Amino acid sequence: xxxxxxxxxxxxxxxxxxxxxxxxxxxxxxxxxxxxxxxxxxxxxxxxxxxxxxxxxxxxxxxxxxxxxxxxxxxxxxxxxxxxxxxxxxxxxxxxxxxxxxxxxxxxxxxxxxxxxxxxxxxxxxxxxxxxxxxxxxxxxxxxxxxxxxxxxxxxxxxxxxxxxxxxxxxxxxxxxxxxxxxxxxxxxxxxxxxxxxxxxxxxxxxxxxxxxxxxxxxxxxxxxxxxxxxxxxxxxxxxxxxxxx
Length: 246
What we know:
alpha+beta, four-stranded antiparallel sheet, elongated
């Protein structure tokens, strides 16, 4: 269906079928419609569609707004896979603007450049730190968080890519001498909102080697709080990121 046809499809399954006006119904975009339905507290979704890509989903949302629907104001937010657009009828029990709190825990073992082969093929969030090359009491010293990322296909696979493409540049940017090294900390978090968590951590920690999200958070929730536990060192213990702008 074209975007115009999809708007008519949404109208047919809401106003034309159940009555009322378009603003009685709320439209949003997500990577998981069933999870989102539960989070909104809606009994059921009256219509939904897979737009295929995020830009198409945003365009559909704008047209649904023009048609009079109550549309999630965070149209420009979401994850890269927030391609599903949905609609439900609002009630006193539904919540339209959503917030979320999650916790992640960084493992005790960190991985320096000589031991990246030991990284597991699990998924989650990682942080690259610059540290002294010399350890004291078997502990990395003077660590500074440089880059936060997500691993959706294994930590080892993702970080191997940094080793070949980014390490030399990061060291140059940070003016790292021979007495410094790069070390990775990992926090397992195999969850479909992994990109949302990554975006919040980057935005609020302002890690210097990240480019995306440093100027603003985007994600599946209008506001997300990420509590960071374990061996996080220079990372903030708790961050709250809010999407600003439409």
